[in-house]
């Protein structure tokens, strides 16, 4: 028997969404750290970092290889930048800031030295975490490392990344069951990106109701990582950060569709419309 999901709609979001305090300031709105990027893939970190800022956190720092420094400082002046010692990819992960949440993986690459740096990071990290993209691919090659993830870490795989983690499935029911077992085993929250996006939190299933085919575009997942990490840094419970994040992410495409159509919508349009998505929750 297939377990029915709980649907993520406007009514459910309003139960967990918090308006911004009129007396808040950037120091208490949460500091996000985005770790990722490699030569030719710095854009992924730009998208994640800008999405994080546009989703309400007070500060964003990006940790990238040296080749990303000028790009980020030019593209998003509001984002602070730390650089690795290596020019083209991340070879170690070292920082002296205290973030409230970390997003890792966008554009990261899978160099052997990067994998080793990721392992050392996992051994030492205790901050709330969102894991995406190449960080997930590295974990799929080294599944014993998954036990190093903090409880209720949010992972955001697309279908092929999910398959590498939980194994192949032959039906939607089998996929859900495999994901539930994986979530329970490692105590993780799985955001299974797709149409629709499904969230698994142990034996609980949530199905998003926003979004459309316009989201099938390069960088869409990087933006989602930034949104969820931002909400996590603002002290939302991990499951609530995931739920609100996927809802808003999808809603931006619904808002933009009449103007962009499916073909012309790009990941930057998600960021462009995230303010309107938030405003829909304030009415």
Brief write-up:
The chain is 44% helix and 14% strand. The protein is built from 10 helices and 10 strands.
Main attributes?
single chain; alpha/beta; globular
Task: Summarize the topology.
Blueprint: E1 6-8, H1 10-16, E2 31-35, H2 42-53, E3 59-64, H3 69-75, E4 80-83, E5 101-104, H4 112-124, E6 129-131, H5 133-141, E7 154-155, H6 159-166, H7 172-186, E8 189-192, E9 198-201, E10 204-208, H8 220-233, H9 238-260, H10 267-282
Parallel strand pairs: 1-10, 2-3, 2-5, 3-4, 5-6, 6-7, 7-8
Antiparallel strand pairs: 8-9, 9-10
Helix pairs in contact: 2-8, 8-9, 8-10, 9-10
Total E-strand runs: 10
Give start-end ranges of low-pLDDT stretches.
none
Count, helices: 10
How far apart, in Å, are the first and last alpha carbons?
Answer: 39 Å
What does this molecule look like?
- There is one protein chain.
- With 283 residues, this protein is an alpha/beta fold.
- The protein has ten helices and ten strands.
- Helix 9 crosses helix 10.
- The longest helix has 23 residues, at 238-260.
- It is globular.
- The mean pLDDT is 97.
